[in-house]
Amino acid sequence: MRIMKIKRFKSENGAVVVIVALSIVALMMVTALTIDVGSLYEERRHLQTVADAAALAGAQQLP
């Protein structure tokens, strides 16, 4: 009986490693997506600032 329990736990160890490895990959993908979306919003904000500055500079040149 004891031998069967040891074999059962031994076979589950490999499954745990696979689950942990897949979880780490998924976590890295979510982290990369978060960084990419953050960069996208930062670039959008920068472009809007440049457009606002250009509009103000153009408006100041009007008579």
TrEMBL record:
Residues 14-61 form the Putative Flp pilus-assembly TadG-like N-terminal domain. This is Putative Flp pilus-assembly TadG-like N-terminal domain-containing protein. The lineage of its organism: unclassified sequences, metagenomes, ecological metagenomes.
